[in-house]
Design brief:
The chain is α/β, with parallel strands linked by helices. 47% of the residues lie in helices and 19% in strands. The strands form two sheets. A six-stranded mixed sheet has the order 2-1-3-10-4-11. Helix 3 links the parallel strand 1 and strand 2. Helix 5 runs parallel beside helix 14 and helix 8 crosses helix 14. It is globular.
Length: 333
């Protein structure tokens, strides 16, 4: 005959263990198991204060209560974002190090730099698409050019005479101007600056004929009556510049919309379950009404999309800039 008293004693001990473990078991979830337990670093490849930095800090603050580890912002500027991208590509693939990615280090640099220590589409995995910081072309208010077709007609009649300022050689500002010149079959002389501020000063002073930069940089100049935007490199007119046509509307030229995207990427070996959890949480933040408001204040448009959509955008962006760099025989300085 079996010893039922021993079985009863074992059952009681087992039940006590379950009771002790119940609180821990009730708080456990698969998503929580996927999150990294150590602090999560979000590397921002630009100095503090700019639109991308504002986006990164807002996103970090919103994610802090959603992920298991505390969020830490690390500004790692230099080489158009390449330094930060390299650091993330080499980081542990556990979801604890993320990149606030832009096209500069992902879809432009590989075509301009002879040597890079990472391959963006092999060493980094897309997590989510968050925003777009649209580009525009503008002239000073005193300019004789009232429309983009007028400017391009003069550029075609006098090849190389008209100048446009950019925020630096090899930046999306520079390449967007080159894309316009190639698409319109004109010659525009590129004048690089170290950022938008000095470029805008020379535009207003009349030292350059036009500027290609972010719409957000131009909006204060438009509001103060110092600049006139001739077109935006977007598919539809911007809500912040409702009376300004897109470049395609102004010229009839296609393939001149340029997404200046901002997204999140991680080391390529990061487990798919971790990537999915990060994607889901970022998208929950992205669709909040407060996110749209905060990003618009920073001059960005909210674009909420997952990892596959970001991967497709990077693919298209890479092809676009590869063609522009090759046709223009452009070199990094």
């Amino acid at each position: 005959m079996r010893d039922f008293s021993a079985l009863r004693s074992n059952a009681l001990r087992y039940g006590a263990c379950i009771a002790l473990l119940a609180p821990a078991l009730s708080s456990w979830s698969p998503a929580a198991a996927q999150e990294p337990s150590k602090p999560i670093r979000l590397l921002v490849p630009f100095a503090p204060g700019g639109a991308q930095d504002i986006i990164g800090r807002y996103l970090s603050a919103q994610l802090a209560g959603r992920l298991s580890g505390p969020m830490i912002i690390e500004n790692k500027s230099g080489a158009g974002g390449v330094i930060a991208a390299e650091a993330v590509a080499r980081a542990p693939a556990d979801g604890s190090t993320l990149l606030l990615a832009t096209g500069g280090a992902i879809s432009i640099a590989p075509h301009l730099m002879a040597k890079m220590s990472y391959k963006p589409q092999q060493d980094l995995v897309p997590v989510a698409l968050v925003a777009d910081t649209p580009m525009a072309i503008a002239v000073r208010t005193q300019s004789t050019f009232k429309s983009l077709p007028e400017l391009l007609a003069t550029a075609k009649a006098q090849p190389g005479k008209l100048t446009y300022a950019s925020t630096g050689t090899g930046t999306v500002s520079h390449l967007t101007g080159e894309l316009l010149a190639q698409g319109s079959k004109t010659q525009l002389t590129h004048v690089p600056y170290r950022g938008a501020a000095p470029a805008l000063i020379d535009l207003i002073s009349g030292n350059v004929d036009a500027i290609v930069t972010s719409a957000a940089s131009l909006e204060p100049m438009v509001a103060n009556g110092k600049a006139r935007v001739l077109g935006t490199f977007t598919k539809v007119p911007l809500s912040s510049l409702p009376s300004t046509p897109t470049v395609q509307e102004a010229t009839g030229l296609s393939d001149l919309s340029v997404p200046v995207w901002v997204g999140v990427m991680a080391p390529s070996r990061t487990p798919p379950s971790v990537v999915k959890h990060l994607t889901d949480e970022i998208l929950k933040v992205c669709v909040q009404a407060s996110t749209k408001k905060r990003l618009q204040e920073a001059g960005a448009e909210v674009v909420c999309a997952g990892s596959q959509e970001l991967a497709q955008l990077i693919h298209e962006d890479t092809q676009r800039w590869a063609g522009v760099v090759k046709q223009g025989n452009l070199k990094s300085q």
